Give the backbone structure.
Amino acid sequence: MTHWITVISFVALLVTGVEILISHPRFYWGEVGNSRTPPLFKIPIPSSRETVPTGYGYVLPDQNGWSRYLHFEAAWALVLTGLVYVISGLWTRHFRKNLFPAPADRTWRAFRSVIAKHLRLAPPDEADSRSYNVLQRVTYLLVIFVLVPLVIWTGLAMSPGLNAAVPWVVNTLGGRQSARTLHFFVSISLVLFLVLHVAMVVLTGFASRMREMIPGLAAAPRERT
Amino acid sequence: MSKISRRQFVTAGLAATAGISGLAVAANLAKRYGLVPPDSAGIYGPGETLTYAAQRLFARHSLAREFPRSMISKVPFANSMPPLNDAFKRLQGGAFADWRLSIDGMVARPASLSPADLRSFPVRSQITEVVCEEGWSYVAEWIGTPLLEVLKASGILPQARYIVYFSIDPDWWESIDIADAQHPQTLLAWAMNDGDLPVAFGGPLRLRVPRQLGYKSVKFVTRLLVTDSLKGFVSALDPKSPNFGYSWYAGI
């Protein structure tokens, strides 16, 4: 349940995030940055604002109104769902049982063997279809406890209201433009995770994985095995 | 396996029920304490209301960051703007001596203030960042009259809830709530850095609202309307409206 709300929120955040980015596809470091200051880097796409020097002879339509509305609404949905997920995960010991690497797997050897298995494209063995291997566990923990909190933090650091209320949120990141640049890179990392995650689900059998993930459909195929 | 999922199902059901009844209670309280923004209707309403309510509940009086003089941007960025009308050009010809700021609506003493009148109020200067919703920003020193001083002098009535402020451009106006209107950093700015406020930055008079995104800082301000309702002024979701379909509250 929390997974699917997160999926919808993430897609909404991604689409609107790209839309907002188009209005100023330049990135800076520090507190300030604008079309008259040198960028850290630029993304070579046309912009939805005529004030941005892109080299393209045209300006895209401004879609920031609904994009910003939806971006922040989806962010609320993601944060609130995330809280429910983390609290229930701690409550049911889901993190400790299923995500924190099992004692035997907390070695570099175990880590290397899983990676080697992936590189050889070896078929998953019996245990793999029922629980997460050490590589999956570390990746999921990284996403849940590092990347998502970081993307929320860097996002909040761009809120002028929040900057006034809690200045250290932006100051510790080195300024507003640093926060924006970091928000971009953390988002890219999350998109990479999404691509890998979906690819893995498809490779291991899309239909059976979906049956396991949708409440009510899970019981039937399991009993057969 | 099925036992756990049943327990999870019941827990989720209880949580959802508690959540929905909690929301209903919260919505009632929010309305009573003025925590609902005027664009709370429609599909984006819940997100907007959460943002606005959270900031008004927990950070009503917080101050925007002020920066050291060394951080003032050498080349501040003047955003593009629509061509200025004849009324503006006439006033510009007279070095803005005939510029007037009118205050009407829910005030005891409606007034019309000249640039000299405005300068007779206590002056405040602050080095704050202009943050555009597009992503760029710059830091400048803003010097002017706190809006609060003008409102106090005109005798703002207790039932006032919003200030609508109009540019000389007839298609340009914005509004803020009373919390931002009475905030010490909300400034009727008439000077910037080392001189008069340049036209490109909104001169001769711009309302700076440093706790919100740049689009709330309207340029060429000529009128303040004090009101208890924004009926007829908020059409935020309409992309053809003067606020381009942008959200009303821009403190995010």
In short: Chain B has six helices and ten strands. The radius of gyration of chain B is 21 Å. The mean pLDDT of chain B is 91.
